[in-house]
Amino acid sequence: MKRLIAILLCLCLMLCGCTAQPEKPHDETKLQIVCTSFPAYDFAREIAGDRAELTLLIKPGSEVHSYEPTPKDMIRIQESDLFICNGGESEQWAKTLITPELNTIYMMDCVDTVAEETVEGMETHGHAHDHEDEDTDHDEDSHDHEDESHGEQDEHVWTSPKNAMRIVQKLCDALCRLDPENADDYQANTASYLASLTSLDEEFSDVTANASRHTIVFGDRFPFRYFADAYGLDYYAAFPGCSSESEASAKTLSFLIDKINEEQIPVVFHTELSNEKMTDCICEATGAKKLLLHSCHNVSKDDFENGATYLSLMKQNVAALKEALNSVSYTHLRAHETRSNL
């Protein structure tokens, strides 16, 4: 049935003047797994190893929130043995391609989700997928910020290693059902990977448990809601995680600058593939250090070719977070030097 659907789709595209041949032939001896995003791709390759041929639809270095599938992508999805997508508003396009015959995993369905929120000082206009009359039910204990509003579910579920472990187990279960002959291999790979994720979780827990502060600041979008909740962090940022904006207003910049100076925050974070202009502006005004906290939503082409993984990027985040939560701020040092010179 899947093959028939793919053929019909291909014929329709040809009638519309489109060509839709896959970029390379399938290895019929391996499971065909198609993933929309880097986290899904990386989790799947850790579990499947060389027993699957993986396709990553959203290419390294590209903007994840504005992705639209090509005709070749549509064929790949329909011919796959397993389609792994995140779900949520930014992947509404995927739902139009999913049929009952297509084995599909939504990563958002593997965990307990929370609503995307707007915290004090954050701009709300320019959201990548704004909606009116959304269900705003939310666990009241999940965060403790004043002046917050709730809307659709936050999509960045993988940013918490605790969630990553749940997703990985669900992927393992799916692969074992699809390919029971190799279930022992999938389970062994999963056990090894879960041990690494557990160690990563413990490292983040240790950093936050021994930190001198528990507030982080982003001069950027904030896709770390699940991460912040998992490790008891408060945060301020220019935009929500799925904002389409890249430049903040003077009011937002002023708020973040004042907050950094008031709370003596030593580090301002930016996310991967950002133009970093807002972060640079804030750092210049405050003397704070600019650091990357990688959400792993996508990677650069160079990082991908150099073998970057969820684990390797998150290990870098451990060091960055430790510096942000324990360093003495430039403002504090400057004030101390002034007092010493009196």
Task: Give an overview in words.
With 342 residues, this protein is α/β, with parallel strands linked by helices. Helices cover 43% and strands 14% of the residues. The chain has twelve helices and ten strands. It has helices spanning 2-15, 38-48, 71-79, 92-95, 161-178, 183-209, 225-230, 250-263, 277-286, 301-305, 310-326, 330-341, and strands spanning 31-35, 52-56, 82-85, 104-106, 115-118, 149-153, 215-222, 234-240, 267-270, 289-292. The strands form four sheets. It has a four-stranded parallel beta sheet with strand order 2-1-3-4, sandwiched between helices. A two-stranded antiparallel ribbon has the order 5-6. Mean pLDDT is 86; it is low at 1-22, 129-151 and 338-342.
Number of helical regions: 12
Q: Kindly state the mean pLDDT as a whole number?
A: 86
**Low-pLDDT windows of residues:** 1-22, 129-151, 338-342
* Element-level helix/strand string: HEHEHEHEEEHHEHEHEHEHHH
> Which of globular, elongated, flat, extended, rod-shaped describes the shape?
globular
Please report the total strand number as a whole number.
Answer: 10
Radius of gyration, whole Å = 22 Å
The amount of helix comes to: 40-55%
Class by SSE composition: alpha/beta
Quick one: biggest sheet?
A: 4 strands, parallel
